[in-house]
Amino acid sequence: MPEIAWPATAAPLAGAASGPPAVVLDTNAVLDWLVFRHPCCAGWSACFAAGRARWIASAAMRVELAHVLARPALAAWRPEPAAVWAAWDRLAEMLDVAPPAGPAGRLRCTDPDDQKFIDLALARGARWLVSRDRAVLKLARRTRPLGLDVLTPQAWAAGRLAAADASPQSP
Predict the structure, then answer these.
(1) What are the residue ranges spanned by the domains of the chain?
(2) d(C-alpha 3, C-alpha 153), whole Å
(3) Burial of 39 (0-12, 13-18, 19+ CB in 10 A)
(4) Which residues touch 149 (CB under 8 Å, ≥6 apart)?
(5) Under a CB-based contact definition with an 8 Å cutoff, are residues 8 and 168 in contact?
(6) Closest CA to 115 of 154, 156, 61, 53
(7) Class of 22-164 per CATH?
(8) Is 1 helix (H, G, I), strand (E, B) or coil?
(9) Which residues contact 166 (CB under 8 A, 6 or more apart)?
(10) Tens digit of pLDDT for each residue in 21-77?
(11) Sequence-ordered alpha helix ranges (H) in 8-55
């Protein structure tokens, strides 16, 4: 499994905090990582713990994850809610969400339940929004000029963005 390579220098985005680049994970990406243990997500815990990226989330995202974890259909996977919440509490940076301003504020997802991920990513200057949801992914072309790359967990883990970046890579 290749480790995610992060740009050594990344230009701060509007609304972004200084420091490591931020990533928003939608509920399915969190499930892939912390419940299904998808191989492409294997390095995520180490990445966040080492501070190479900041996982940002909101209270609405936590509520949605709690709702999904309680669904009977997920029982076959035997999720460990205590482990999921421990990882969340240890690695997620909880932020308030103010609606994004300017062109970012006009971006609307066809699935209203997914708007919270887009709004947080744009309002807080996230570098990436990781999702498998088609309604979210189809916004990728429109978010890229705003500094936000929307991509699948596999694409993010493969480091496609870092491979395309000509800047030196951090250790």
Answers:
(1) 22-164
(2) 13
(3) exposed
(4) 127, 128, 129, 140, 143, 161
(5) yes
(6) 61
(7) alpha beta
(8) coil
(9) none
(10) 999 999 999 999 999 999 999 999 999 999 999 999 999 999 999 999 999 999 999
(11) 27-34, 44-49
